[in-house]
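Q: Given only this backbone (126 positions), what sequence would you predict?
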């Protein structure tokens, strides 16, 4: 595969991911979540979306695949670990949120159909 072709595929994937995050944010707002952060980045990692609803603070990872069922299983151990490190760092910068119940969700988007919101999709290890 040529370098130009790789760049084109990477750019296409970034556009698809950006669109998926826009759809996920709209979907979560319709469900009553308040969006706290979108594409929050630190040296420890990036979090797609952070939302709050009542006493719950949820880290939301957005996944797109041809089928929403496949998207939900795309979050593997090392990525989960990076997300938790990033979340811990985020909470250090926002101590007023530290008392909320934490939840790790996935919003899965397939090629067709509505987004699938998997609440408490995974739990941190240890």
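A: Predicted residues:
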């Amino acid at each position: 595969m040529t370098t130009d072709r790789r760049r084109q595929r990477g750019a296409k994937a970034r556009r698809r991911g950006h669109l998926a995050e826009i759809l996920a944010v709209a979907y979560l707002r319709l469900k009553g979540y308040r969006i706290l952060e979108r594409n929050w980045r630190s040296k420890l990692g990036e979090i797609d979306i952070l939302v709050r609803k009542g006493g719950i603070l949820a880290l939301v990872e957005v996944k797109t695949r041809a089928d929403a069922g496949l998207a939900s299983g795309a979050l593997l151990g090392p990525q989960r670990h990076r997300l938790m490190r990033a979340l811990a760092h985020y909470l250090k910068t926002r101590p007023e949120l530290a008392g909320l119940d934490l939840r790790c969700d996935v919003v899965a988007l397939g090629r067709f159909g509505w987004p699938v919101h998997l609440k408490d999709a995974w739990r941190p290890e240890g």
